[in-house]
Model the fold of this input.
Amino acid sequence: MNEPIKEGGYQPYTNNADWDFLDALASGSGPDTQPDIYSFNVGGASGKFFLKKRPDGSFRAYTIPYQDVKIEVPANLAGGEWKITLPDGSQYLFGGVGFTESTDVTNESGPGSIQAEIYVSAWYVKKMISANGDDEISFVYQSATNKIDYQTQYSESKSYGLPGNNSGFCNTPNTYSISINSIGVIGRLHIKEIIGQTGHKIVFEEGASRLDYSDKVLGRIKVISNTGETVKTCEFFYQYLNMGKKFLQLQRIQEVSNLGTTDEKGAYEFKYFAEGLGTIDSTFSRSIDHWGYYNGANNTSLIPAFTSTDGSISYDGGNREVNTAKTKIGVMTEMRNPTGGKAIFDWEANTYQYTGCDGTLENRAIALQGQASFGQADAVKQIVQKKFVIDTIQYVRFTTTINTQGITDHECSVTLWMPQQGDSTGLIAYPGNISLAGDVYLQPGTYYIRAEAWVPPVALPDSQTEVSAYFKVEFSQKTLLGTEGCTKPGPGLRIAKVVMSDGLNKGNDLIKEYRYNQFNNPGASSGELPGDPPTYGRKGQYAAKNVHSVLGCLDVICQTFSLSSSSNASSGYTKGSPIGYREVAVLHGEAGINGYTQHEFSFVKDFGSLDNDWKRGHLLRQRTYDVRGRVLQASENFYSILGASADINYTHTYGVTAEWRKRSACLPDSRNTAFNLIIEKPITIISAWHRMDR
Done:
């Protein structure tokens, strides 16, 4: 962007430039206003950082959270050389000519609507230099000459017009659209050599072509002395998980004799979970759960199945639920070393606690809608009546719209009724003849809401004009939960058990089992989503013009509902995992026969667009118990978070998005919020000090 984001916010109703800027963002034609997040991983340090432009035009990097790491940013971000200096003084040089990879994203949303974007996405390490400068290690890469396509992502959406719209003006067809992103790499780099100061080097040789996409496997690694002699050679062997589409798996790392022979020495061997294999689509893009993990569903659509509570919208979509068995397919279950020892891994699906639940009951939001419409073709009054049950005393929200087309001789109404002494065939009007607008305090019971529409047919000017009565009722009901209470299967996997065996005596096995439940409530998971759970439906509205001969241009508000295959909410990540755990117990020996250790970790949910990952996953308390539950050792860690803007080493950067909540068709440029309402959504990224004090 030429101009920096205004941290104090925008004033679109008094500043024309701000109006144009936010309008472009909300309409999808504005610049990229969201800060880029970079990741780094070098010896002894890793993390994320963002860039801020200085007054002289140069950039400075800020780590998330603050670290004693110096990152020198080149003037040419894409093609220049980056330098990272660690606290011990060692330096790492990245990027420059021949040391970058680019990502190519091609989007196709329909015939003739192909858009492509190419950008530098990775900067490879080229040199490591010791603190005193007398030792260095250089890296050499081999680049692919062709573009390598390795992933295809589908995005689908479907939109509807809602009941209650004026059919004469709100011609909102039910539409379906699909967008396809093809992701590839240009200038793919594979490590070729690592060369030490003395001339010793490690050589990496490419092997056969891959069968899952057009690239090469790693075939062999050699250790070569400074005199050119081969010191050690390891060959890599592979297999494929075949589910219609192939997935590469490392099968064996075999050390072989030198001097040009192929005599085999010891090998590392690997096994994988392969139960319940099925066939998936060739791009592995539709058989996925809410978070993108394989669930084995034979989906033809990525939009989850959806039915509105009033039945006005029904979409027979896909199954995006977590499949705890299918998620494990392809994960490593055993690693055997050359001496016969092995490590066995048992995995299970993540779990998490979801909100709005007290362990037995959860509150479920209910929305009931209906509309009665009368036109010239209708012979009798049109009546729509729906039943609903309130199980607890509460405020019930009513929304009603009566459209009489200006005809005074009408019988259009929305009324509330109750059974007379429990007899649903003998309804009586709700006492007090209440106004069904806004929040109404109702006692538990059964209710009926009725919409009626009628006018003398001759009063209607044409066959397209209708009068109508529309209602919407919003309330909550309590639903009884199953045996798992508030715990739900979550995205991805967690380790459940590890067995380390020497291969000689089973009695020597070292066993650890892992439990992720709450210490004081063993039936409940301690896992949480860092952000909000996935949601796919969204209400919207737009204005249509009604040019009246007397009143002039009038806005007709048309209500819409859209479904998407991508969640409207961001679930976030905790140290790369979609689930974070507050409490984890490690059992030593089978079922804890040698005692156990409890760990408590920090967890802070994301707040809107604010990413709090840097505050999560820090060990707070640790207690070790013997098999009888007696405390053997306990420790507690204390941290400082300097998260205020006045604190040392605090800085932040801003981004912004915008959304039209209301836009007039008659007065689209009016600065009156009664006609046009645009909402600015700030994005804040913080670099602040987080350290353990004691």
Notes: The mean pLDDT is 89. Residues 182 and 618 are 38 Å apart (CA to CA).
